[in-house]
Amino acid sequence: MGLDWALGLSVLGVAFVAAAFGLLILVLVHARFRPRPDSVFSDRAGGTVFLFDGETLVDATADARSLLAAIPARGAPWHRLMSHLAPQFPGVEQRLAALSSAGTFVLEGGAAPAGPDLRLRAEWCGGLSRLTLSAADDPALMPLLDMMTHRALSDELEMLRGVVAQAPMLIWRENAAAEVTWANAAYLSLAARQLEPEQDLAWPLPRLLPAPSGAEQRLRLDGPAQPETEGWFQASAIAGEGGRIVFAQPCDALVRAEASLRSFRQTLTKTFAHLPIGLAIFDSGRQLALFNPALLDLTGLPADFLSSRPTLFAFLDTMRDRNMIPEPKDYRGWRRQMADLEKAAASGRYEETWILPSGQTYRVMGRPHADGAMALLFEDISTEMSRTRRYRADLELGQSVIDAMDEALAVFSSSGVLVMANAAYARLWNHEPDTTLDDIGIDAVVQHWREGSAPSDIWARAAEFVAALGEREAWADEARLNDGRLLRCRFTPLSGGTTMISFRIAASTAEDDSLRTLRRA
User: What are phi and psi of 321, to 5 degrees?
Assistant: First the structure.
């Protein structure tokens, strides 16, 4: 009896397990073939349908998502879709903005060369915008996905063709044998102009430019005789499968500008070569860009050093090593001085006189140039300085000579300006002309003499004599100083219209008789 119960329970358990396993298989099979609710549209839903909440894409069918991926525009799905629909459905954005009040509308697209006409159906569904695209004539004409994708790709192809056709440069494709297998409109137009009369274009197309090496290269057009600066192109090649594509940009203007610049530099070089002033031009990076032969003579620097384009500080360091710069007390102070030189020269304020250990004297000037460049000019003024020193020494000698004389002397220029007076004159009249920088005329000097002497007409005649033109005769007269001393005055014309007036205090009767004799004469 117990054995029968055990056997029955075993059979029941086996049956229960078998039933549970069969039920599990049915559930898995049903789940495998049941459509997945990944979208509000089922996989069976056909067409190109978009669902928007305002401008936010909520969901779309597979065809619709493929269309968005094929549109070349960039941005959010709404803006990309509008950029695609606007040319075929004018005013579509304004109609969609009023969809909540209209409820629904249908737009028929205009004629398009890239495919059949379209129809757009818009519906307001519980606060969402549902947009459906289909073929206007026959929705079954072709799968809408293929149609829309074909149209998007065709539009992009037409745009690219237009860009290449209107490109202002030569574009061509050549095969591995360097034969031109395709070219844009600019290339074909130029090739046609190079043909002989009654000659037509043939394939492969004629080569207009030599084959570039791959890197960017300047090439010249193979054609009839033309000016040296015409027919130039800046070409570069991009390797591709079975050949390469070459781009060539016209650069005649650049070649002419470079030729003009070379000519200008040659003219400047010839001009600078004859200048006695040394010239060194440093670019914005403070490297030597240009120098003339006079710089070699004045600085003693070797030509190969200058041709290596040294920096400004290397240039000045080498000059210092050759004792061509005034030696400072310390090197650090010299470097600071050269840094100040650069700043002052860049602003056009540097001008100094360098007295070299060799005894030579240089005038050094710094001037700014365009684009941050600067120029240093070196002029040997040793002869000029020697002449100036000798002239100054002669003046000092002459001044010391007349200062040693007891007779008071005053010399006036042809214009009546006091140009020289000795120490005796300063003591006699208590007048120091050297203490003022302003020119002192004869009228001011005569007024000073009047104030220091008794009234007399001698001073008026003196002013007239100094200002007189033409031939003049020496004359003499006397005046009485305020302290009672008798003053002998002599007025003597000199070369160039200058006048010398001398004063002497009368010391004896013999001198009085001599003065009276001169006056009677």
Answer: -65, -25
The terminus-to-terminus CA distance of the chain in angstroms comes to 192
Sheet architecture: strand order including 278-282: 288-291, 278-282, 374-380, 361-368, 350-355
Give the residue among 166, 200, 201 at the shortest CA–CA distance from 184: 166
- For 168-254, the fitting CATH number among 3.30.1150, 3.30.450, 1.25.40, 3.30.2010 is 3.30.450
DSSP, collapsed to helix, strand or coil, labels residue 237 as strand
Instruction: Give the DSSP letter string of 135-184.
Output: ESS-TTSS-HHHHHHHHHHHHHHHHHHHHHHH-SSEEEEEETT--EEEE-
What is the fold, at CATH topology level, of the domain defined by 275-380?
Answer: Beta-Lactamase (3.30.450)
Rounded to whole angstroms, how far apart are CA atoms 403 and 380? 36
Sign of the dihedral defined by the CA atoms of residues 65, 69, 71, 74, in that order? positive
Per-residue model confidence as pLDDT tens digits over 415-449: 899 988 988 998 989 888 776 657 888 999 999 99
Q: Where in the chain is the domain with CATH 3.30.450.20?
A: 275-380, 394-520
CATH architecture of 394-520: 2-Layer Sandwich (3.30)
pLDDT in tens, 84-123: 888 788 888 888 988 888 889 998 876 444 455 678 899 9
